[in-house]
Amino acid sequence: MSIRIAVLVSGHGRGSNMAAIIDACQRGEIDGQVVLVIGTRSEAPALQRAAEKGVRTRVISPRNLSEEEYAQRLLHALDEARVDLVCLAGYMRLLPVPVVRAYAGRVMNIHPALLPLFGGKGMYGEHVHQAVLESGMKVSGCTVHFVDEHYDTGPIIVQRCVPVEEDDTWETLAARVLVQEHQAYVQAVKLFAEGRLRIEGRRVRILPPTSP
Ligand code: GRF
Hints:
The chain has 6 helices and 9 strands, in the order βαβαβαβαβαββαββ. The longest helix has 24 residues, at about 170-195. By secondary structure, the protein is an alpha/beta fold. The protein is globular. Bound molecules: 5-O-phosphono-beta-D-ribofuranosylamine. 5-O-phosphono-beta-D-ribofuranosylamine binds near residues 14, 15, 16, 17 and 110.
């Protein structure tokens, strides 16, 4: 069964992970369809990019709304679009708890480091990669995980590593990680669409493919 996917982006998100998921659906690699991209601001380049790919977009801004009202608007949009999976991609705020609960086990996020290291509030973009460089670690990478009620703490689905090079700046490291992000996110969504992810406590078990 083909799954229905919504992608959430925020602010000025450029939407490269979103685009990777849309493209993988459109070329048939993922048995699914991105039916909706929701942004927090109309100026987000990600929304334009989605529209150019023929995907419906909506702006739901949390500004001037209580957390409860924002949650209800998100839920209404997701329910109305009959969404099976929500992918956060450059969504820089905590997803409201009612949404996390209503879509438990059906919301994923991507983080540009190897969780549980270098995660949590304030750890995004440049801050993550700077912290990795300052730590002296020789590897970094990315993590796709299910979303729970906190920042970056949900069960891990897929991780990919990259080396930290001697002359790396945060920009060169970020660029190397980003290539892996696109592949990791597509892989995780594909596994979900195939019904091959089972959450067991903190672990996500990847089930073998079923024969056709
Ligand atoms: C990515 O680095 C992702 O890991 C993080 O936000 C960034 C979004 O980039 N959560 P893009 O908008 O997908 O290009």
